[in-house]
Amino acid sequence: DGSYLAEFLLEKGYEVHGIIRRASTFNTSRIQHLYADPKSHRHGMMKLHWGDMTDSSSLVKVIASVLPTEIYNLAAQSHVK
Fold this sequence. Notes:
This protein is α+β, with helices and mostly antiparallel strands. The longest helix has 11 residues, at about 55-65. It has a two-stranded parallel sheet. Helix 2 links the parallel strand 1 and strand 2 (about 45-50). The chain has one domain. The protein has helices spanning about 1-10, 30-35, 55-65, and strands at about 15-20, 45-50. This is GDP-mannose 4,6-dehydratase. Keywords: Lyase. One of its GO terms (biological process) is 'de novo' GDP-L-fucose biosynthetic process. It is an enzyme of class 4 (lyase).
């Protein structure tokens, strides 16, 4: 899922940007370890942006500000109970 891909890309030296949506159940526990440790060589390479994958204007805004060379879409609920 997205947290594993983000970790892999960070280990390869990529700067990784993710889109998170504002929700009543805000949860970044699956990626917290990727940007929380200021002593990590990955610190500062993981950036999160507020947005909604179903809203094209929010996607355009993030893409225009980041200007990515690659885009991966892993926006799915892989842990649905």
